[in-house]
């Protein structure tokens, strides 16, 4: 299987700084939060976006970025559809933000209902992560290559626990693309969807599913405790630092690279002054020691992209995401 062009060239994009975006405007005058801010998360507490949101909440409030409090609203369901529907009830209101990711492009490509990425306001891409595939420490599955060989004999031999978004999501693409490239019929694999990556991992540790694909940041504490083994990562090359021993899919005979950007959105109709305010606040947050340490822990790519270039990037990436899903037979041409 030939991966979509953008997925093949993630390393080039990062190296070239194409996620950096245009210079930000000066801090917006005339608008600032006048009442509590809600940060909406489309998955259950403990998921990757929830962990990021709670760190953001702490940094904002400890450092008094603005005078109003910030609360976290977990609106799990429908791969983020429930959260986006809730967000868009507040048209033009800068007091509501939503943590989204590349999976929104996949949802649109597969024709899933609800509010689409084009119907809300892009504020900023914050960073990106690769997808790791984990199993229990005592699992008989020894490696990504071993999993491929097992599924060649029987595609339903092992059950996958999929985080929020389910089949077709970026997490699912992180393993399905590899399996497809190795000649496995991904339509015959067994999948169970959970409201967060944390819940999927809990189910795996309890013996209810066998394998979980999830953002690398989710695996840190479990890998440190020895409860799991991460057997493959969706990057083009091995990651530095904590996960440097994890082989890529390409090293294990599967030609697949999947990169997931994480971003902030607002409801439709946000004013330019509101968008500019949050662009600057978010860029300040990304420069804090707390967030820089978190990026190292996650083995994430620390790149920022403001609202206008983010919108253009999504429009350019969408047909490539759709092409991958068509190849996986999860979307129609």
What does this structure look like?
- The chain is an alpha/beta fold and about 325 residues long.
- Strand 1, helix 3 (about 50-60) and strand 2 form a beta-alpha-beta unit.
- The chain is globular.
- The chain has twelve helices and ten strands.
- It folds into two domains: about 5-130 and about 260-325, 3-Layer(aba) Sandwich (D-Maltodextrin-Binding Protein, domain 2); about 130-250, 3-Layer(aba) Sandwich (D-Maltodextrin-Binding Protein, domain 2), CATH 3.40.190.10.
- The longest helix is centred in the last third of the chain and has 21 residues, at about 305-325.
- Helices cover about 40% and strands about 20% of the residues.
- Mean pLDDT is about 90; it is low at about 1-30.
- The strands form two sheets. Strands 1, 2, 3, 4, 7, 8, 9 and 10 form an eight-stranded mixed beta sheet that branches. A two-stranded parallel sheet has the order 5-6.
- It has helices at about 5-10, 10-15, 50-60, 80-85, 105-110, 145-155, 170-180, 195-205, 215-225, 270-285, 290-300, 305-325; strands spanning about 35-40, 70-75, 95-100, 120-135, 160, 190-195, 210-215, 230-235, 260-265, 305.
Instruction: List the total number of helices.
Output: 12
Structure classification: alpha/beta
What's the number of structural domains?
2
Task: List segments where confidence is low: pLDDT < 50 over at least 5 consecutive residues.
Answer: 1-28
Can you tell me the CATH superfamily of the largest domain?
A: Bordetella uptake gene, domain 1
The level-1 CATH class of the largest domain:
Alpha Beta
Rounded to the nearest angstrom, the radius of gyration is: 19 Å
Q: Which geometry do the CA atoms define?
A: globular
Could you describe the largest sheet, including whether it forms a barrel?
A: 8 strands, mixed
Distance between the termini: 17 Å
Residue-averaged pLDDT, rounded? Answer: 89
Helix amount: 25-40%
- CATH topology group of the largest domain: D-Maltodextrin-Binding Protein, domain 2
